[in-house]
Amino acid sequence: RKVMFSGIKPTGDPTLGNYLGAIKNWVSLQNTYQGIFSIVDLHAITVHQNPEDLKKRSIEIAAIYFAAGIDPKENIVFIQSHVHQHAEAAWLLTCNSYMGELNRMTQFKEKSSKSVKESVPTGIFAYPLLMAADILLYGAEVVPVGKDQVQHVELTRDLANRFNNTYSNVFKIPKPFVNTGSAKIYDLQDPTKKMSKSETSNPNGYILIMDSPDIIRKKISKAVTDSIGIVNYTDEQPGVKNLIDLVCCINGRESSEIVELFKEKGYKEFKEYVAETIINELEPLQNKVKFLLEDKHQIENILKEGARKASEISQKTLDEMKKNIGFYSIG
Ligand code: TYM
Question: Is Aminoacyl-tRNA synthetase there in the keyword field (predicted)?
Fold first, then answer.
């Protein structure tokens, strides 16, 4: 079976965007591919993290993976910092990369545009190289991500090809897997922007996976729509379109069905339907997360075993990289 790799960084609490754009797709792909899923904490520290929050979120994200349906028997799940090979491979890739290609990353351009050049964190600049290491170490060919990460997977392909051409065929060439409906879930307050929990976002703009039903109802009722007043799936109504996309990702219905369903009705009823659809999906998941977190040892055991397996696989690739580069080895 082909390998699929993906991860979420434990910065801020995970959102409905992370769930629909990433986790939900992993769950549906896990029967087709060998899944390797990480809680990518090395990525999280590209911006300062409160140490206690980082710890708490890392285990919570693991619980969310399992509660959402990632089968720990069939997939490898681990915390990135437990597998030292990632940081090491990232350095080897760094020495096969160019400032120019990293400078072209849209996410870097966005994140750095607000600060003066001198104070842009180096980690934010170099981070796609760590992401490339994550993917290439496992020979992953499928990388299920949201649209915002596609460019990083493309860079990973370039780096892999370059390494293979310079040395020998060490790496498989990965492909991003993006689900059309959930590729980009938009902010509820500004539907031109990706839904994200970054500090610049208005809290009413995002739904957290662990938000209570009341909060979800409140946030959806405040979601920005338009003055047209008719539920329609069109680019002229980005707020309504985003809500339809949300619903369709969850219940698998077509946008046209939703439009038909609310043909004679107003936004209030439509939003109630959206909120209840989200709650129906998230509430059972939240209960499972809470249940799983009551026994952290069980999660820790799975993560420990995951790190052991991940370490074994990644070490083989790392050895190949080192051998090809020409590092002296003592047999
Ligand atoms: P991160 O932690 O920002 O987001 C995790 C995943 O959620 C997706 N996502 C969204 N999808 C649709 N709509 C949204 N509003 C939305 N917000 C987030 C992201 O596309 C991502 O798939 N660098 C990555 C983590 C990473 C990784 C990897 C992913 C590290 N190494 C290797 C794949 C393979 C990141 O920062 O994702």
Answer: yes
Q: Are 47 and 121 in contact (CB under 8 A)?
A: yes
* pLDDT values of the chain reduced to their tens digit, one per residue, 331 residues: 999 999 999 998 999 999 999 999 999 999 999 999 999 999 999 999 999 999 999 999 999 999 999 999 999 999 999 999 999 999 999 999 999 999 999 999 988 887 777 888 999 999 999 999 999 999 999 999 999 999 999 999 999 999 999 999 999 999 999 988 878 999 999 999 999 987 677 999 999 999 999 999 999 999 999 999 999 999 999 999 999 999 999 999 999 999 999 999 999 999 999 999 999 999 999 999 999 999 999 999 999 999 999 999 999 999 999 999 999 999 7
Q: Round to whole Å and give the CA distance between 62 and 126.
A: 25
The binding-site residues of ligand 1, defined as CB within 6 angstroms of any ligand atom, are: 5-9, 17-18, 21-22, 40, 43, 131, 134-135, 143, 145-146, 148-149, 182, 184-185, 194-196
Annotated catalytic residue within 24, 194, 219, 271: 194
Strand order through the sheet with 142-144:
76-79, 34-39, 3-8, 142-144, 175-177
Cα–Cα distance for residue pair 32/104, rounded to 1 Å = 33
**C-alpha 192 – ligand 1 centre gap (Å):** 18
- The whole domain housing 315 covers 3-178+296-325
**Options 111, 219, 241, 271, the catalytic residue:** 111
Separation of 185 CA from ligand 1 center, angstroms?
A: 12
Tell if the pTM clears 0.90, that is, is over it. yes
Residues 10 and 84 occupy one common structural domain = yes
Q: Residues near 211 by Cβ (< 8 Å), separated by ≥ 6?
A: 219, 282
Return the best residue to mutate from 149, 152, 201 for the ligand 1 pocket (most ligand atoms within 8 A of CB): 149
ipTM for the predicted complex comes to 0.99
Residues 140 and 104 both lie in one domain:
yes
Number of domains in the chain: 2
Query: Does 194 map to a domain?
Result: no
Same domain for 168 and 237, yes or no, is no
CATH classification of the domain holding 305? 3.40.50.620
Among 202, 167, 146, 161, smallest CA distance to 21 is for: 146
Residue 331 lies inside a defined structural domain of this protein: no
Same-domain check for residues 51 and 106:
yes
Q: Quick check: is 144 in a domain? A: yes
